[in-house]
Hints:
Blueprint: E1 8-11, H1 17-31, E2 35-38, H2 45-62, E3 65-69, H3 72-78, E4 81-84, H4 91-98, E5 104-108, H5 111-119, E6 125-128, H6 144-153, E7 159-161, H7 170-175, E8 180-183, H8 185-188, H9 193-207, E9 212-216, H10 223-234, E10 238-240, H11 241-249, H12 253-260, H13 262-275, E11 282-285, H14 294-303, E12 305-310, H15 313-320, H16 332-346, E13 351-354, H17 361-374
Parallel strand pairs: 1-2, 1-8, 2-3, 3-4, 4-5, 5-6, 6-7, 7-8, 9-11, 9-12, 10-11, 12-13
Amino acid sequence: MRLRLPPVYAITGDAAGTADAADLARRLFSVGVRCLQLRDKSAPDRELLTAADTIGAAARERGALFFVNDRVDVARLSGAGVHLGEEDLPAGAARAVLGPDAPIGVSTHDLAAARRAFADDEIDYVAFGPVFESSTKTIRRALGLDALASVAAGKTKPLVAIGGIAPAHLDAVWDAGADSAAMIGGLLAGGRVEENARHALDRARRRRRPGRIYLVGFMASGKTAVGKRLAERLGLPFVDLDTEIERASGKTIRALFEESGEAAFREREAEFLAGTSSLPAAVVATGGGCFVQEGNRRTIARLGLSVLLDAPLSTVRARLSGKTDRPLFKSEEQLAGLFAERAPFYRMASVHVNLSGAETVEETADRVLVALEDLEEFPA
């Protein structure tokens, strides 16, 4: 298969209008959607091209696939792929206009048409539907999951299920053999675009979850709060090493440092880190100094994937203002020195997530999940 489609395929829908389509695309891209189709059959050409140019630029910045519905000319001018319906140009003619690299998808509505599309070398993916009753395609009856499964049994290219797909349908659609689920109303419902998109994306991620994710980074970078949210979204256990050490010892981290010294604490920390091997999959928040230790870096590399939450010093300083529970935070000068000292070790992490501009835990979780997908840690 030449083209790899992500499991969620967003369509802006005529109801969005070109004036809102670019903003809708931006919102969807920001939470991790990586495939989007601009569809507006009534927009004037100039408005449609303007929207396509804007969305295309955003898609390229995010590494997302972008398609224009029907309009091969607009797709060519905006550097997009095209999605063709039954009455649009044949795929071969579209290819002559778009060139060899632009992705082309087609809609099909029965098994015979799908088979023809799979056999056409100019087509990169095949859409089939409507699988369910659709509010945007009312002229066709729902074909159902059995018909989708029949098409999937003979697929030689990515298969997109389309038509009336709501979040509750996603697992059934993927189980039937679709590689991607096209969604319009299911993403726009209630105006909760980001929430709906996250829900759809997370359903796919839970089906392809990685093993152990170890969050590393400086103190106050958000490892605990973000780790809890990541674990919730992926349906995984969450472990905070500092919390587990405190629970087992009955003492705070600061007290352990003061009573036994940092060297003794690091030995205990290494033991607890190694103990996470008992969990086949988990999100683990490590202490700020954990990844600095070479032995811990080797343990994490053996057990899972290290993910750096790369918070700027200004953010860390603001979060630590007034805090008294951090044993290695003694002064502003000492903080800056420790930050610089540990930075080279943090850069050894497998995945770096820049937190500049991330204002909420949810936004940071989005960035981590997208970074994991970019490294294909959620294999197809």
